[in-house]
Amino acid sequence: KQLVTAQEQAKSLGKGRWSPNLPVTREILWSVENTRSFFESYKNRPLKAVVENVRDGCSVQVFILPESLNEKPNTFVYVTVTMSGIKSPSIRYEDGKIVPDAWGLDALFFTESRLLQRDVTILLESVFNQTFVGSILHPNGNIAELLLRHGLAHCIDWNLNLVSVPGAAEAYKIAERLAKEKRLRVFENYQPTQTPEVHADSHQTVVPGKIFSGIVSARPTLFVILFIWTHIGESGHQIYMRHTDNLICVYLLRVI
């Protein structure tokens, strides 16, 4: 009886489905036909979106909202976005079962608990087939940096140059380094690279310095350039070269 009464009240007030106004129809573009053209139209433009699904730690599916698009009114575009500059552990599906890499479910939950059904801003930075690559920004921060800081992703060096958010690429590297130092999650077995101790007075050690390119014209196969300690002083440029019998020779270049 209470439900019937509530319905009658809604009808009399013209609310919701009982409104005399024509309803607004939501159009959904489930697949972008020409991803390259779409990308060129919206490249690096802030696009308002709602996260509809989280595939893994660094990949989400979103509805881009009509106010950010030059499409028909009330048109939502459904796209998959992979975060630029990072990679989280993968999650695969085999025979209907989830097969995650180590820490894959943790990365999925981390992103899902923070972004699912939430408003975000998308910056499209590249495209590959039907998947867009970009930055996903939330008012509380950059989810990619948080994944790195908690050891649930690692940087992809060749992909970092795509990141268009000012200062983000450097922040990613710092976050990854901190996670490595703490050996968090995907870095639990991380071992830092051992670098030899450098002594400026040792002929057996390569000392970082300036690198000069050129051609050794006198029997070049007899020498290995040790790249190179250069000392700039009154005597000119000083370089060390090792002979094939391990004899260390010092050369002073008077004219360069």
UniProtKB/TrEMBL annotation:
Name of a matching Pfam family: SNase
PROSITE patterns from the UniProt entry: TNASE_3
Protein name in UniProt: Staphylococcal nuclease domain-containing protein 1
Domain TNase-like, first and last residues per copy: 45-189
Coiled coil spans: none
Top-level taxon in the UniProt lineage: Eukaryota
SUPFAM superfamilies membership: Staphylococcal nuclease
Originating organism: Schistosoma bovis
GO cellular component: cytosol; nucleus
Record-level GO BP terms: mRNA catabolic process
Source species taxonomy: Eukaryota, Metazoa, Spiralia, Lophotrochozoa, Platyhelminthes
GO MF terms, alphabetically ordered: nuclease activity; RNA binding
